[in-house]
């Protein structure tokens, strides 16, 4: 079984931080309103502080745990992936069921030279199986291997 | 791009009437559902109506002018688009379904919508809304003839299933529509805000009757029971009407390669489902239906009507013996006598889940209704009983190339999934399942809903691995590209 590139932890941390930042204006506004109101119950900056604390704990633990439980393997006739912290999911996608394949990379991933292999099937739940954190060259190699299998199978 | 020649036809001019009708319905709905009342609503609705007509009216006219189609025995060509011109050629041999739909307005106007579907997409690839009825029949006949010419097996029909009015009425008795009830209650409250209906006066009158003998505060439990009864009766009546309208004159014919269906009272639906698009069968029932051995057969297909989320009515109301005679002709299966159960530990896991839910709800309720909320704890044994029933009704077996799964207590589902239709395999295990050595086996198929799909919940882990290996081996042998 393959593990992901350790750089994925940094990518998930950066993406997580960006997502949490969007909540910051909400808590900051609430704190400013509380600061100028007759409020004796809440400490000034309580909500922003709480948010930053949760954000810090989240960023410190979740990417590491996600990384620890992510495994994948391209086997002879299927792609096998295991992931999940709370809900452990183990997916087997027969290669002959793959409709098309993508190697995707955003700016952050590009910076760390990693990519996602996106496998599309006609299914409902596993329409898109995404394997993140694969070194770019490896992702391209995987894509080509699967494509070759599909071409040979069709012939 | 080459433009349409003189052979190309336009849609029926009454297409505009449909557009105007839809716009009027939209305005009325916007007005009724507006939180504002009185003159403001009327003024805002009028402004909105003028803006809508000004912006979309010319676009609708341009869309109509630019839309042309031409049908031959070999293909249908459609030109459309105002800002971006598109020419779409759909070869006859690729066409899987040509369906004609006529809603009430279309029937009054003598028009019909023709929907052409291919294997490529879930939605209709060609949509001619609207053409004249004769023109719709001509298009369907032309394309069907062409498709038959390419299909050596032809499409001779065999004995069909027909739902007579007596059975339709009986099937409607078992229906209940919570969604329509909620919608009707919402409209009722809006009408009340306009002063058109006055529920307060009705309630006051009821309270003044001998039956209640008291004020609203004294009689609130009775009022609550009465309201619940009204909702139940209303839900049942609406379910009855909805079922009657939907499945009126339901008939289905099995050809050599396609299932042909025709049904509907207000909107007449007519179309065909190719056998190769059938992914699985789902038999649905509820405790009352099961008492009389009644079931509803749904056919899960690849795409087709998005409104039906991939599930098409095969037999809306039939005895199990009728279904087991009819459906295997589409894709062979037999119903075995013996099934395996899931792990008994499922009772413990589900009981724990319901207990937590009931305790949290009771604690939340006690903040407002202390001490009556404590009575909510009386629901705990009911939760445990329900967990036991879920265990009792959840069974599965792999038999003759099909995975058969029975689950749920009230709205029971019985899945028949051919192994060659599997798309992917999944084993999931939540934290609680892992503590008990349990997991859920899911087989993914094309066209299933996001909430409705075949799964076996709380299998022992070793049993799940063994079943997955068996299914995967069978899949490797049976499944084609």
**How far apart are the first and last residues' alpha carbons of chain B, in Å?**
36 Å
Q: Biggest sheet of chain B, in brief?
A: 7 strands, antiparallel
Number of DSSP helical runs of chain A: 5
The CATH architecture of the largest domain in chain A is Roll
Q: What this model shows, in words?
A:
- The complex is a heterodimer of chains A (about 160) and B (about 475).
- Chain A is of the alpha+beta class and about 160 residues long.
- Helix content of chain A is about 50%, strand content about 25%.
- Chain A has helices at about 5-20, 25-35, 45-70, 105-110, 135-155, and strands spanning about 1-5, 70-75, 80-85, 90-95, 100-105, 115-120, 130-135.
- A four-stranded antiparallel β-sheet of chain A has the order 1-2-3-4. Chain A has a three-stranded antiparallel β-sheet with strand order 5-6-7.
- The mean pLDDT of chain A is about 90.
- Chain B is α+β, with helices and mostly antiparallel strands.
- Among the domains of chain B are: about 15-150, PH-domain like (Roll), CATH 2.30.29; about 180-245, no CATH class.
- In chain B, about 45% of the residues lie in helices and about 25% in strands.
- Chain B has helices at about 15-35, 40-65, 105-110, 135-150, 165-175, 180-195, 200-210, 220-245, 285-290, 320-325, 345-365, 380-395, 430-435, 460-480, and strands spanning about 70, 75-80, 85-90, 95-100, 110-120, 125-130, 160, 250-255, 260-265, 270-275, 280-285, 295-300, 310-320, 340, 395-400, 400-405, 410-420, 420-430, 440-445, 455-460.
- In chain B, helix 1 packs antiparallel against helix 2 (about 40-65), helix 5 packs antiparallel against helix 8 (about 220-245) and helix 6 crosses helix 8.
- Chain B starts with 14 loop residues before the first helix and ends with a helix.
- Strand 4 of chain A pairs antiparallel with strand 18 (about 420-430) of chain B, so a sheet runs across the interface.
């Amino acid at each position: 079984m393959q593990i992901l590139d350790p750089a994925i932890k940094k990518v998930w941390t950066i993406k997580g931080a960006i997502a949490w930042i969007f909540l910051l204006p909400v808590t900051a506004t609430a704190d400013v309103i509380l600061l100028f109101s007759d409020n004796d119950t809440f400490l000034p900056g309580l909500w922003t502080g709480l948010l930053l604390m949760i954000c810090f704990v989240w960023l410190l633990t979740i990417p590491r745990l996600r990384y620890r439980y992510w495994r994948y393997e391209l086997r002879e006739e299927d792609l096998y992936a295991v992931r999940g912290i709370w809900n452990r999911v183990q997916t087997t996608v027969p290669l002959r069921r793959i409709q098309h394949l993508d190697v995707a990379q955003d700016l952050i991933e590009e910076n760390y030279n990693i990519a996602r292999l996106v496998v599309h099937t006609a299914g409902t739940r596993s329409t898109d199986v995404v394997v993140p954190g694969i070194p770019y060259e490896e992702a391209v190699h995987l894509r080509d291997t699967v494509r070759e299998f599909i071409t040979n199978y069709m012939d | 791009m080459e433009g349409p020649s003189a052979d190309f036809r336009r849609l029926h001019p009454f297409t505009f009437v449909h557009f105007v009708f839809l716009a009027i319905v939209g305005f009325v709905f916007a007005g009724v559902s507006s939180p504002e009342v009185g003159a403001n609503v009327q003024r805002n609705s009028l402004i909105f109506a003028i803006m809508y007509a000004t912006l979309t009216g010319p676009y609708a006219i341009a869309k109509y002018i630019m839309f042309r189609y031409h049908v031959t025995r070999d293909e249908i060509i459609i030109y459309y688009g105002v800002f971006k011109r598109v020419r779409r050629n759909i070869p006859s041999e690729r066409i899987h379904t040509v369906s004609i739909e006529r809603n009430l307005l279309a029937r009054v106007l003598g028009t019909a919508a023709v929907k052409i579907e291919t294997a490529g997409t879930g939605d209709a690839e060609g949509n001619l809304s609207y053409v004249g009825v004769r023109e719709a029949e001509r298009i369907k006949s032309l394309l069907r003839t062409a498709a038959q010419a390419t299909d050596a097996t032809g499409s001779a029909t065999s004995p069909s299933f027909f739902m007579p009015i007596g059975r339709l009425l009986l099937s409607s008795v078992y229906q209940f529509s919570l969604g329509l009830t909620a919608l009707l209650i919402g409209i009722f409250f809006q009408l009340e805000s306009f002063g058109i209906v006055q529920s307060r006066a009705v309630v006051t009158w009821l309270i003044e009757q001998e039956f209640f003998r008291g004020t609203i505060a004294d009689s609130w439990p009775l009022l609550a029971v009465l309201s619940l009864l009204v909702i139940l009766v209303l839900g049942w009546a609406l379910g009855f009407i909805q079922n009657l309208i939907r499945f009126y004159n339901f008939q289905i014919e099995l050809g050599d390669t396609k299932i042909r269906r025709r049904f509907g009272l207000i909107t007449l639906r007519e179309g065909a489902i190719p056998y190769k698009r059938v992914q699985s069968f789902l038999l649905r029932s509820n405790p009352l239906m099961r008492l009389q051995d009644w079931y509803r057969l749904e056919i899960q297909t690849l795409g087709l009507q998005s409104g039906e989320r991939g599930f098409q009515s095969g037999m809306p109301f039939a005895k199990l013996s009728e279904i087991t005679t009819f459906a295997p002709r589409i894709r062979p299966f037999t119903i075995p006598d013996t099934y395996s159960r899931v792990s008994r530990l499922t009772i413990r896991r589900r009981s724990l889940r319901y207990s937590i839910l009931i305790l949290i709800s009771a604690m939340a309720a006690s903040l407002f209704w202390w001490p009556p909320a404590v009575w909510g704890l009386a629901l705990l044994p009911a939760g445990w009983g329900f967990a036991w029933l879920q265990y009792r009704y959840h069974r599965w077996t792999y038999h003759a190339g099909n995975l058969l799964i029975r689950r749920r207590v009230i709205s029971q589902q019985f899945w028949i999934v051919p192994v060659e239709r599997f798309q992917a395999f999944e084993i999931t295990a939540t934290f609680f399942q892992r503590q008990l050595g349990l997991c859920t086996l899911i087989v993914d198929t094309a066209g299933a809903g996001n909430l409705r799909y075949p799964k076996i919940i709380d299998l022992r882990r070793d049993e799940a691995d063994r079943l997955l290996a068996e299914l995967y081996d069978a899949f490797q042998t049976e499944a084609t590209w």
